Fold this protein.
Amino acid sequence: MAHELFMEKGRASMMYTGEVPWHGLGTRLDRPATAAEAIKEANLDWRVTKLPLFGTNGVLGVQVKGKYAVVREDQIGQQDAAALGIVSDGYTLLQNEDAFSFFDLMVKDKEARIYHTAGALGNGERIWILAKLPGYLRVAGDDIANKFLLLSNSHDGSSSVRLMVTPIRVVCNNTLNIALEDKGGAVIHHTKQLFDNLQKAGDMLASMNARFTDVETTYREMASVQMNTERLNVYLSKVFPEKSKTKHDNENSKVLRDRKLAEHLFAEGKGNNMPGVKGTLWAAYNGVTELVDYGVPKAAINLSGSRRLNSIWFGEGASIKSRAYKIALERKSWLN
């Protein structure tokens, strides 16, 4: 399934540095990787191609005009080969090695050790790359966040190439996704201009650094907003809204549980007792992000580790973080 880590010959298509992820899958490296190392260790050293799509009239194969199946080149001819997706003739493929080249162009160094994790979901329908940029964001006192960019690409036609500003808080490793609609990244469509747009990547680094500066300002403003019980309840009720009670009783029980857990993490979450952080909107926001990333037992949310990864970066978890960020922006009116 497209939300699971791709497994091939018992090996998960993922590389990472640092602590072992909660799912325990993937290849651990002792230090950040170069592009070549990341491609190899994440099992991303394969290419895709477009093949004409054929239907059948019961006797003969009939080509479907303007439609193509995206397949892995290394699986062509194999009995269990499957199409990753169906696309049009105008769809331009982005190979995995070219996705890494995007970052290489930005930092102008193919041997730069900037890659902290990379991998593939499903049968390779979606791939991701997380790269660290120089510098960090200082929010309050010793509370800092490292600057990462998350690139994702689909080989099935389901999404564009997406580049997202992704600060990661050092004290707790919370992933602070910033949604694209909140000026948190860029989108490059799979059109004929795909590679022309990728060639502009070298000019993008300054733009991305400017966005990180804006995000740092927002985080500092959050840390300047003092919370009380009423404000915390208002914030969490908007981040975790209830649905119609007559039709969604089970979902609402989960909503109430999540509010309680986020309230607990507001006070007791990693780093939330630090001077300048304790009792602030910044702590409330990080309570939510910690809940999404780590706070709910796997059995409670009924998701395997790799499905959680998909949720945190691309699915429901990412949506919750985006909502928490937007609502925090609205609550800056509480600024003292």
